[in-house]
Amino acid sequence: MKELDARFNYECNLEMQARWEYVVDVTDPDKEQAANAAAVRYLDFKGQAAVNASQFDYGGFDSIQLYRRFRFISKQGPGALSPADLTEYKTLQARMETIYSTATICDFYEPTKCDLALEPDIEAILAYSRNWDELRHVWDQWRDVTGKLMRDDFIRFAELSNQAAVLDGFDDTGMYWLNGYTVDDREATSFVAANPLDQTQFRQMLDTVWDTVSDGLYKKLHAYVRYRLNDVYSGQIDLEGPIPANILGNMWAQDWVNIADLVMPFPQFPSYDVSDSMVKNGWDIQQMFDSAEDFFKSLDLFPMTQSFWDKSVINQTAWGKVIVCHASAEDFCLGPDGDDWRIKMCTDVNMPDLITVHHEMGHIEYFMAYKNQPHVFRDSANAGFHEAIGDLIALSVSTPSHLENILHLSPEVPTTTPPKKNTKYTDDEMKDLNFLMRMALEKISFLPFGYLIDKFRWGVFDGSIPTDQMNAGWWQLRQDLQGVAPPGAPRGEEFFDPGAKYHVPANVPYIRYFVSFIVQFQFHSHLCQIAGYSGPLHLCDIYNNTAAGIVLRDALERGFSEPWPIVLESLGGSLDMDPQAIISYFEPLITFLDEELANAGQCVGWGDDCLPYDYVDEEFLDDDELAAASADTTVASPTTEESTSPVDTTLAPGSEAQAEIDMKNMDERVTTAVNNAVLKDWTYALDMTEANRNISIEAWINANDIFNTNYHEIFPKYDYESFQSQDLKRQFQLQENRGTAVLSNEDLNQLNFIIAEMGATLSSARVCPVDNKDCDEKDALDLFQLENIMATTTNYKDLQYYWREWRDVTGEIVIDHYKDYITLENRAAEGNGFNHTAHMWLDAYTDGGYTVNNFMSEIEILWNETKPLYRNLHAYVRHKLQKKYSDFDNDNDLIPAHILGDMYGQNWENLYEILKPHEDVEIVDITDTLNKSSTVKEMSRLAQQYFEDIGLRRMTPDFKENSILERPSDKNVTTCQPAAWDFFDVYTPTSNPQTQGRFRIKKCAGKTQRDFISMHHLIGHTQYQMAYSARDLLPDPEKMPLVFRDGANPGFHEAVGGAMSLYASTPSYLLDIKNSIAPTGSKLATMVDPLEEPKADINFLMKMALSKIAFIPYAYILDAWRWELFEKNNTVKDFNRLWWKLRIEEQGIAPPEERYPESHFDAASKFQIHNKLCDIDGNTDAIYNCTLNNPTSTEALRDMMALGRSKGWQDILKEFLGTGQGKMSAESIKDYFEPLNIFLEDYLSANKIAAGWKSDQLDKYIKAEREEISAAVPIIVGCVLAGMVCVVIVAYFVGNSRQKKKAKAKKAQESKQGVDNIEMGEKKDENEKL
Questions:
Q1: Is 110 a catalytic residue?
Q2: What phi and psi values does residue 1079 have, to the nearest 5 degrees?
Q3: Which candidate in 11, 360, 365, 909 is catalytic?
Q4: Nearest alpha carbon to residue 585 among 425, 396, 356
Q5: Quick one: pLDDT at residue 638?
Q6: What tens digit of pLDDT does each residue of 959-968 get?
Q7: Annotated binding site for Zn(2+), which residues?
């Protein structure tokens, strides 16, 4: 035996090494072959060892330990097969496991996207989707690509497995598997108090345990969940039947915790899922494993070895290879002298995986505890014990006290309005019931599944389930034991649905998990007693209790050396598996379920065994219910229609009540279509292939059709101007302007194609480097790279080259398309009753008696009020740049467009180092700190935290997981225009990721201060989207209609984002950020010397002005130019002449060289909001130093954002400002920059510089059209082509951008998303009424 033990260590280690190499790299066929060969070798060795052991007459050995070693080692298992059969056996198993591990399915919304893997894609859908059809789709497809493909292999595999069992002296494989749970007569005699236990007796024990738990708790939980799910899937659930298997949050309906948000007893209290808190607190995968190790160490168990940390694979992304994601712990069989134990797991940062980490590390602790045992005893007392140890620890880890006091994780409290006070339960009792419900959804829901997996296989092995009726036998067990049924029609025998579960193709016995879930509560109860705990069992935490740890360690060290009932008595206080600990643990929940089901009139069970409760708890009925109960002792089913008086359910045609129903139905249909189209947009934005573009266009055409169908069916029926409901009237009014939805499908398809082509031109265009003008395509520069050059290069000629070349490679296609674009847009405007597109765009700003002309006049006034500040800034910049560049003529009063640090001359912030007024005074700049000590993801987290700290909403899990923060390296082409996306889901602010909706940002960020501030800008848009999507702050809790899910006008969105970026730009905030991310031990940054503070303020304001003030005329002329083109309707040819006329006259910017008029195509409320919030916050400092610190100061902002577009924008602005009028004003922006303007005036006076420029200089820069032209180009590429929509100077007075709504026509690449191009200030909506 000593010699054999050493051989076992060697052979087992060889097999484990080969197996490990394969399971952590499953796509390598060579490793698969090597693993199969090693497995066959090890089985052959075990077979030989078993044969040799059976030669001994070990029944007469005096040593019970030696006897026990021979008894179990003499069983050959599959090694009893002939070499050929053994090879076939392992090949079949490997093939089934490969089918499972490599299976993928197609997306429900994108049928051509067929790369969804079980983890994380499919599991996430089943966990968070509430779309019955999508859940049915993934449920069906997974079974099609797994079990169905291995049915024949499993039948043959079962035959070979039974052959091996018979050769080994067993009736069948089921009896062989259960051998480890048996206690024979000699063992019963030798070990005090042990009783003989054979396989049949053990199965009878399991039946008894299950019947107790099923009747006492499981069926009640099942009935309650079924009752609550009926509210979600009305008409899909039989309240007296099994639950459809696709809606329980898990592929196998084995764990229902993912539907906790749907069935939680008291949703206003936490459900104790701390996933969000883990993310918020910066947990990573390593910290999850560290916390598990800490728990075991606190019990005086074992720390993990260095080999464990070096060799485990716990992060598939970091590992970089495809692994078998099913979590597992591995013992590499090295015995007393070894230290090689590992975990394999595709870990995500969430609570379920935190529990799994403890579970898997429990296995490792068991391995380490029994390492000194002989090889055959290096196992748990029975297989279920191995599974129970980690889960035992998880029972303590899951307690509210441990989560909050030890791990410092707090469950997210839903932000819904609290219901009326519950008089039956205290707050603590309600929290406890939520906790117990969550535990029951995890633990109790699993038990029947944990039992039936092997019960099914035992039936196949012993023939009671014939191989031609396997699927029928499977579903009979699932219905009988679990009370679940397949969605839709019964499943035929062409399917093999058990094979959709990993343990079936992997040939892993499963009854161990059932045993584990029973005995872990016994262990928990007994160890809590030893720890001296006397309170409710579900609140016990044995962390840091070494008395409990001593008992646990002793049991683990015994391994398999004693019969399991003896170990159970030591660790669980009884020789028998006893379900009473489970009943005690969940006792408060059982009482709650009894009362709830009785009061709801629900039966318990399913089918003929669905037994009704026969009492009504009158104590908790209201007066009306009590009166009804006194007359009739039954309580109506939730599906029973009740009425106290006759009700006329027929609504008059054309009535306001019927209109409300029709509008709600229309909103649901259109929202679904738009949601789907935005998903297609997102895909195209990240991977700009022709196929994705066409899918996106098709989705928007479909949305357009649905909108038009509903519009023509509903709108003519109603005189909605006479409606009493202002809310309903406004929904109709806002959709009178249908935007491009009025176009024919042919025209709309052409318009979408044009926009996509122009966007593709910009995103795919490349320019060769100045020092390699004949470069290969791989060396050419895209716009993102060119922008970096324009921002950093100071060579005048190089900048001119890149400016010119970019325009030369993007023009000819664009100009031809743009003419057609104008024609089609104007056709849509005429179809909506407007003279041209400019009026159609500006319709969004009109309300009541406030007309387009009123708005345009107000914009002109605002620009004229701001113009003096801009001209002073322009003169200062011009003077500085003339000193910098000798090529810039001092007599030229126009600034060449190519030297302003930006491809379009719209933002001059990149010139700050050249232009800063006081060169020896530094302002806070965190770029270097970000580069050295942070990541883009951490920048995003810090920005998100700011919004939480000031009392705004927490970003959703989808936002954190799926936002694009850096340029993807694995996509075809992705433009880098920053954008905030709203997917128009139904948004409910709960702890469940799916019901929180999808809101994302897309940005190619670098680790710079500018990009950090920009993240606040983008998240400000997202906050607005979340606010009006939820509507939980409004009196009406109904979801916001799609037409209201927008800013109050197209500028409000930019106003909110811009205001947030103003706060994020303040020196005090940036200083706090700098200190928070600086390396530990580094010197804390401080504010500037008080004597230098005025100079620092001027520098700071200069940097802000280069960003904010410089952009104002650009925003103004961009739409002024487009308005005129739309009005002329292609009757003018010299687009470029008109463009440069405006840029010269309004912006004082000139092209660096002559341009052609036709062939070249170069096409303040944020401060009001800022001032108002600073006033609320009690700010007494200069307005430019104001940063919000008090959550109460954002209440007004939250209320304003929650209104969306449900009221007129002037009314919303009036309410927010509290001024009695909702007028835009330039006073706030003038106040903000007043110190800078004084400095500029003094500087210009001292240097005898005149502000302004001559306006009649156009002919110097626009020459006669050439006869033959090369590719021409737009100067305004980013805005005109990516935006294609109305953005005016209001972006800087009420904001300069609008989130795309309802949507229809796609826009160039990021224009295609159905969202705003936030930084550029483009509104992206072609069909803003869809």
A1: no
A2: -55, 145
A3: 360
A4: 396
A5: 30
A6: 888 888 887 7
A7: 359, 363, 387
